[in-house]
Design goal:
With about 180 residues, the chain is mainly α. Helix content is about 80%, strand content about 0%. The protein has a single domain (about 5-180), classed as Four Helix Bundle (Hemerythrin (Met), subunit A). The chain binds fe (ii) ion (FE2) (2 copies). One fe (ii) ion binds near residues 58, 79, 125 and 129.
């Protein structure tokens, strides 16, 4: 699979989890008591996958194409800044969830606002890449660029890439869908 196709597939998977989390937010706003462990697992998955695996590959890809086009450079810089902000936001949200799981009360409205802001920031970032960055990269890339970049990227021995991880994702996804029906 090409790098962009792989990243695009990640976006689809991340979007599916974000959609479910968005539906959770609506349920929470309606006063339903959430299954916090599941919310925590979904946020953990999104942040862990994005911060540890997906964004580093993108950052390396952006570094590879830097200097080709001034407009693209500006977009890629904004994108890497978004990665840093999302990383910080993930930590803040995980901390908030940990406090709730550890029985340190936090006003529910405040938590829901934070969760919603996080979901929207992640979603906005995916849209930004899909609509602005990836098409621009495809325009700028020369024949041979993708193979060269591919050879520079770390090989797929990262457990986040592997079979187990896909299984873990699917289990989590199924559990979330089940929970939404409850
Ligand atoms: Fe990204
Ligand atoms: Fe991405």
């Amino acid at each position: 699979m090409s790098i962009l196709a792989h990243l695009h597939k990640d976006h689809i998977n991340l979007n599916r989890l974000l959609d479910i989390l968005r539906a959770k937010v609506e349920k929470l706003r309606a006063g339903t008591r959430p299954n916090f462990r599941l919310v925590a697992d979904a946020v953990d998955y999104v942040s862990d996958y994005a911060d540890r695996h997906h964004h580093p590959i993108e950052d390396q890809m952006y570094a590879f194409f830097k200097g080709r086009d001034a407009q693209l450079d500006a977009l890629m810089e904004e994108c890497s800044a978004q990665h840093r902000r999302l990383h910080a936001a993930s930590h803040e949200l995980t901390d908030a969830i940990d406090s709730i799981l550890n029985d340190t009360p936090m006003p529910m409205d405040q938590f829901i606002d934070r969760l919603e802001a996080y979901i929207e920031e992640q979603t906005g970032h995916l849209v930004f890449e899909e609509t602005k960055i990836f098409p621009a990269l495809e325009r700028v890339a020369q024949p041979g660029d993708w193979d060269k970049l591919d050879s520079e990227l770390p090989k797929n021995d990262d457990p986040l890439f592997g079979e187990n991880r896909s299984e873990e994702y699917l289990d989590l996804y199924r559990e979330l869908v089940q929970d939404m029906k409850a």
